[in-house]
């Protein structure tokens, strides 16, 4: 597959997914910048060490959630009541705002970098197979998601075709280019829905006529779940738990009460 | 009342989620340009389109007309996004999706999946946006911000228009094309003649 | 094995049943070919056997269908799949999983095949379909024809006792058709399944082996969905050949020729096709029939071109502008753009008013990309395209549809007013769509959809009309409807450029042919000169159909070839006449 081999890539996808989920939920209740900053540094090092991600991919992968993080810092700094730090005309930056903003921004970075490690080390199809095997995800749901993925792979090409097919009859602007606009987007979007739903029906018939849902069934290439995965999970939980405990011990940890000011 | 979802239903719902997710993404790309221009208020601009993210649930419910379809539609859409598009939001997106799916489905469930008028769709958009708002507000720390109320109003209106009324336009259009003839909506319309 | 007893199938939204009182018994290992015009219920018959009707598609079914002793109503499509393998229409779009090997493994996993045995069976099935080399390919990167063959492998791999094949060759070029035929033949030889085959490219499917390559038994469904004949294929085709031609079916060449010429000399039908003296004499008579005008073009050579490409290179890759693909970091290396190499380069092409140009080339040679570039929808990778803004008709008409009625579709993009209303009314009439004006475009049959898409583009009165495979997947009547419409447009002065891999249609319609292969134009000239250029056809792996080949050698003149082909098309009456509907076929063809 296109996922390159690494220590993280060899771990069970369901375990990785569950850990990512658990850490994300735990962080929902952390509202101080120090805990998140510590976790971000640890997560960054761990992902680089275990996934073999190339530095360029790591940086590019950061772009979307760094953007979100910066937005969170800005909007909180500017829109939260509290002690004023600086003022630009009508805009004022508050201490409380900066602190909450930084906490939320850093939390986004932690989840982002962990997601990145998950994504580069996990094949989506193996994850779905593993969720079926190890998390009792229903067979029909598993294959419905895979059918969704197949559709996703075809969408850019299909979308382009439809936009072209519609552009031929569209009016042209002064530079001779087909006019776009929201109406054109809507018509193309509807056409995309129609052809995709036709495809969905064919996919469902194909899956059923190939016997999906017969029992018993076998799995050609099962996903491994080993003792190492258990050690891995215990390790991650210990580190995250340790950081939060330590942060609480030093008095840095803050919860959602900071939102109320 | 309880009807099992068939593979056909599930595939339809997954494909709907994928396609609408793709279109929402395409729309957001265009919108992002605008929100960058708005500077710090750009964070607010995102709310205008939020309703577009809700639209899959009412459409799926109206076509399949079985319990939990709206919630499942949102969850499958978010799984495709998290697992295959690598959304940076991470698996928490699935939680948000389940919450808004439940909100969107609630008004239809209250009519026992029998009424599909403009009002029910509008309520669906309103509840979807409303439910998920309080979750997002907690996650993104909107509580205590000066903008709190403005955010709420913008999201609710967006929910009603894009996540409710627009869904009815789409569903009625799809019913006319015949692509959903073999689902509950098609049987219902054929029965009515 | 399989028994259909007095079955009538009706869809809720259609007044008349699709299948009427159909009876069919199939013994283990028996093969049957289903013949009938489009809309006669051939696919419905297959859906009935696979259980898709009534379990997945809503329909009322009277009578009983039993497969392997089980009533299909009392079971499910999934349970029936233990016995029945289905290759549905447009199989490429039924590919469900991201890689080829997973796709082919799925039916085996579902039947609890020992995992250790699966890999070997994947290899065998793929090799039988002629796509062994694609095993590790991502399915998103398959061409339509490759996808179709992978689907065939997935239908064959579990060795179902009943094999249902719904147009297994629709997307394939001649090499692909041969591979599919041999894959089916080898399955039949290996484990003797019962086969029901629906195929409308029968001449290509049969290949040079003729009728012997087809299933031994045939049934004919008439327009009302009733079984009009059931018997040995040779006998059915010889007795019902004329009716099938009149119904708009494609037939194997020898059956078509025997049906057209068989009774003429008073002798019994000869079943020998092109080798029969009677058929040869008949074809030569058609070729010499001077009473119909032969529209082979000569005079327009002098007119100024309306579209000219100079030094053109085309490619689908372009600078990301409005619609970029979603980021897929997961796919790492895969997502990297390959080094830039245009599909075609150095293309010089001029198109003149009233000229019909056929664009020929193998699957994947770049025909569609060239058309999109000529249409101004893709920027040229190099060189220039000069001329008026062309119109374009796409391969799948559904991609073009924007309106909720046929009339609205044809009038789309035109300024509203009495002039537009009159134009729409005229086009509806000309294209045999008047009775469908208020229908939803998506609810039409394949042939009707195609005519709507052509009419809607012609409404814009562009000087050039580009068409991507305009006769793709149509039955013969619909094909003739489309070629007539294109010819009528050319007669009115429109330049027409169309791509096709059906050389009989090309020889019937085009004035000029352009062959693309090996990244450029390998031949460009009068159509019959190009069709005689064996090396050009070979470089594009295009095989000349036996009929066209014979006519080119024997018809005496190019005009004669054209006349003979047009006369053969005349054997198919114009579209089913509806009340108040004018003929769909323009006067150049209708005698």
Would you summarize the structure shown here?
The complex is a heterotrimer of chains A (261), B (193) and C (591). Helix content of chain A is 68%, strand content 3%.
Can you tag this structure with a few keywords?
heterotrimer; A: mainly alpha; 2 domains; two-stranded antiparallel sheet; 68% helix; flat; B: 193 residues; mainly alpha; 8 helices; transmembrane (chain A); ECF_transporter_component (chain A); transmembrane helix (chain A); cell membrane (chain A)
Notes on the protein architecture:
- The complex is a heterotrimer of chains A (261), B (193) and C (591).
- Chain A is 68% helix and 3% strand.
- Chain A is mostly helical.
- In chain A, strand 1 and strand 2 (91-94) form a beta hairpin.
- In chain A, helix 1 packs parallel to helix 8 (227-249), helix 2 (33-51) runs antiparallel to helix 8 and helix 3 runs antiparallel to helix 4 (95-121).
- By secondary structure, chain B is mainly alpha-helical.
- Chain B is built from eight helices and no strands.
- In chain B, helix 1 packs antiparallel against helix 3 (56-64), helix 5 (92-110) packs antiparallel against helix 6 and helix 6 crosses helix 7 (148-177).
- The radius of gyration of chain B is 17 Å and the shape is globular.
- Chain B starts with 6 loop residues before the first helix and ends with a helix.
- Chain C is globular and about 70 Å long.
- Chain C is of the alpha/beta class and 591 residues long.
- Chain C starts with a strand and ends in a 21-residue tail after the last helix.
- At the B-C interface, helix 1, helix 7 and helix 8 of B face loops of C.
- Chain A: It is found in: Membrane.
- Chain A: This is Energy-coupling factor transport system permease protein.
- Chain A: It is a multi-pass membrane protein.
